[in-house]
Amino acid sequence: MGRGPRGEELPDGISWDAAKMRYRVRVPGLKSPAHGGKTLQAAKRKKRELEREVKGIRPQTLSAYIDRWEARKARAGRRNVKKERRALELHVQPTLGQRHLNDLTPGDLLDLWWTLYNGGLSAKTIRNIHGSLSSVYSLAVLEQLVDINPCMQIPRGEMPRTGHNPWKKYEPEEVVALLTDERIRVDRRVLYALFFYFADREGEGCGFTFADYNRTLEPLGSMTIDKQYQGDPLKGSRDDYEATRRFPVHPDAAALLARWKLAGFASINGRPPRDNDPIVPNPATMKARSPNAVYKALIEDEKRIGIEHKRGRATHGFRKAWISMVHAAGADREVVRVLTHTGRPRDVLDLYTQWPWGKLCETVQLVQLPVAGEVTAIGGRYA
Fold first, then answer.
1. Closest alpha carbon to 327 in 169, 217, 177, 174
2. Is 164 helix (H, G, I), strand (E, B) or coil?
């Protein structure tokens, strides 16, 4: 066992070349030693790289390894793996996909994240993608294809920051405009009404089907929220906790949906609706619209009717508007939480608490838009 420049013991296969002031690495199977760099850490990395080379493990591109990661995680039952894969394909692979796994540095990733952020992608979305890429690299480290996970090497505070800014909600007059202005296509306005009246996340609203609507309950019908737009589980759902909730259908929303089902749906999509149809499908495919497509359409519609686009608001602005309005009307915060969030019960009392349906309906009816008649007419106006 050799010694380093300060007299420290060196691992097997690594030696110090005092004449050239650098480390040398020797691996069984290679005829001559290799240049190991000027730091012991670099020499260790070089040694592991050469060992992989001797074993016939070739460097893989990021895109190729993401395929393997997806298959492994899907087999292990990882939730939302398809959604994570789509985000990586859309935002990471076009720029870094053909790079080798062990070539990417924390600096490369930071450059990409800030480019995406400056291009309009939200900090929260970027952090979600960063987490998915970190999972890819964690598997690569486990399989000894790389030595470090570059996602874990980014210093704290260097990533785009998230925050809950109060201006991200729509004001009541903006909600009214987005739901009633005839310069916006009627199917989009129906979808925006779903986002508002059910205070749902974008993936949930895009995934609503006619079968989710139960009209038999009293005093208000219910919309079952148990999935996202491609059948993905809800946020907050876990293997041992299925985060399903029932949301009372506001009378204005019920009137809108009745007119939409009776006439408006067919006027846009060319046929009457079926139970398993999305309430507002993509007319070209008759499948659920993607949140990304809805976000782009929303930006166009804001511009069309003169609403200032505020970064980070998106369809979540309808959800925040609804929550703000019911709180301002005096709603019980715990009831609002049950209606809008699907997280795991916080304590044993949550497990034993089930709010009466009538109380949930009372809370929903606290929301009153000033032009309800115009809103309820959306569904069939262009029939």
1. 169
2. coil
Q: What is the pTM of this model?
A: 0.69
Contact assessment for residue 54 and residue 29, using Cβ atoms and an 8 Å cutoff = yes
Q: Closest Cα to residue 234, out of 145, 354, 341?
A: 341
C-alpha to C-alpha distance for 36 and 16, rounded to whole angstroms: 9
8 Å CB contact between 39 and 50: no
111 Rama sector, left if φ>0, alpha if ψ -120 to 50, beta otherwise? alpha
- What's the rounded Cα separation, in Å, for the pair 349 and 238? 20
Other C-beta atoms lying within 10 Å of the C-beta of residue 158: 13
Q: 66-70, 93-97, 377-381: which has the minimum mean pLDDT?
A: 377-381
Please give the structure tokens belonging to residue 275.
């139970």
Name which of 183-187, 226-230, 231-235, 258-262 the model is least confident about.
231-235
How far is C-alpha 372 from the geometric centre of its chain's CA atoms? 32
What are the beta bridge partners of residue 16?
23
What whole-number distance in Å separates Cα of residue 14 and Cα of residue 3? 9
pLDDT of residue 349: 52
Rg (Cα) of the chain, in Å, rounded? 27
| CA distances (Å), origin 266, targets 10, 93, 262, 279 | 76, 39, 8, 11
Lowest mean pLDDT among 24-38, 41-55, 58-72: 41-55
- The CATH architecture to which 62-153 belongs is Orthogonal Bundle (1.10)
Pick the CATH number of 166-380 from 1.10.443.10, 3.90.1030.10, 1.10.540.10, 3.40.50.1240: 1.10.443.10
Amino acid found at 298 = L
Gap between the Cα atoms of 358 and 345, Å rounded: 22
Q: Kindly list the domain boundaries of the chain, sorted by start residue.
A: 14-54, 62-153, 166-380
Question: Is 30 within 8 Å of 4 (Cβ atoms)?
Answer: no
Domains 62-153 and 166-380 share a fold: no
For residue 307, pLDDT beyond 60: yes
| Cα–Cα distance, 314 to 300 (Å, whole number) | 11
pLDDT of residue 49: 73
Is the CB of residue 145 less than 8 Å from the CB of residue 101?
yes
141 within 8 A of 104, measured Cβ to Cβ: no
Q: Closest Cα to residue 248, out of 353, 334, 364, 331?
A: 364
